[in-house]
Amino acid sequence: MLKKVFIKTFGCQMNEYDSNRIYESISKIGYEKTDNMSKANCYILNTCHIRDKAKEKVYHEIGRVKKNFKLKNKPIVIVAGCVAQAENNEMVKREPYIDIVIGPQSYHKINDSILKYLQKKEKDQQTDFDSILKFNYFDEIKNENTKISSFLTIQEGCDKFCKFCVVPYTRGPESSRSFYKIIKEAKQLIKNGSKEITLLGQNVNAYLYKENNKSFRLSDLIMALDDFSELKRIRYTTSHPIDMTDDLIECYSKSKKLVPFLHLPIQSGSNKILKLMNRNHTVEYYLSIYEKLKKINSEIELSSDFIIAYPGETRKDFEDTIKLIKKIKFINSFSFIFSPRPGTAASNLKLIQEDVAKERLKLVQKELFLNQNLKNKMIEKKIINVLVENKMKNQEKFFGRSEHMTGVIIDGKKSIKGKIVPVLIESSNQNNLFGTLKLNNSIRAA
Ligand code: SF4
What we know:
The chain is an alpha/beta fold. 35% of the residues lie in helices and 24% in strands. It contains 14 helices and 21 strands.
């Protein structure tokens, strides 16, 4: 029987990367990917615990699978990712339709779990924190990803314990991959056609790998990637302000490929709230990083994450957040009302009244979107360099990204996929820029 796997992925880029690696692992035991869930005999749900009601969404999703296979043979049902880690054997108890529960640091065991299930119909739960074993296992499996813009995980886990966050409990302690193995995987991705690599980690700038009395930081990785002529752009995400060390900041002047864009979450513009969140840095410290970066290159833009109405946030704290947004003028950002995650230190704190929280979120988003629109408008009638990622379905248009991560829709019939091309921006909205290919540069590049 042909073995087909359908993988559904929720959440961040890390999960997207993991889903690809899971597929590459199980292809070694004969599975082929299908985009049609009904044809699968193995169903994998790679889950995310960050958003609200994550657990309920997973059971809802499994309910849909159950319905889909009501009149067919049941597939092996695997729940992976952060919800799997957090819920562990509760999942199989609550939903016996689930066969395997596997946490993010145990993916190296997925083939064995599947084979065990196929041979003995034995259910399995794997939720240990074995990140080094996992790294070693996947180091031996070729990354077959052929995307123009690829993700590459270099670090996992977090030791920071922000009071609102589940990551230290679902991904475990900070752990960094071998410098040499990362470079080997990057070479493979470049050989496969990648022009842009985004280095990933829950605390990517906490990357620290030691071997033979030598230490390697994120800055060493960036500068090593800089030397690959076929690679055109380097990004990294997600960073913690406390780990924005000078060697990393200097990369913005030394590297020719590191983009002038940084996603650097601050969460609040109030020192009091940052302390309550256990963020371990102040607003002033964050601003000092921003200033250092701007001094190196005034084109550098920041994006951030904001948690609004964190327990204890007064009107004054909230206004400090607005003040910070007005000062930095983030190019884009994510903002949410605080919602407690079970098991975290902030899970039992007294919530701010819902109507107050909603009103504050509205005001924050108004300010953020204003900047976003304004920044995009300022690029109109200018030429920018766009890395073209793909041709849009059924259209004579291409999709690419600016150095600042903004999506760019380009008119054109010529094959430009995988190239960095000059694009004249004609119009914009909050999220995208629209333009035409401009091979004759008569207008100043932005
Ligand atoms: S640093 Fe990031 S991943 Fe770590 S606990 Fe804080 S928010 Fe979560």
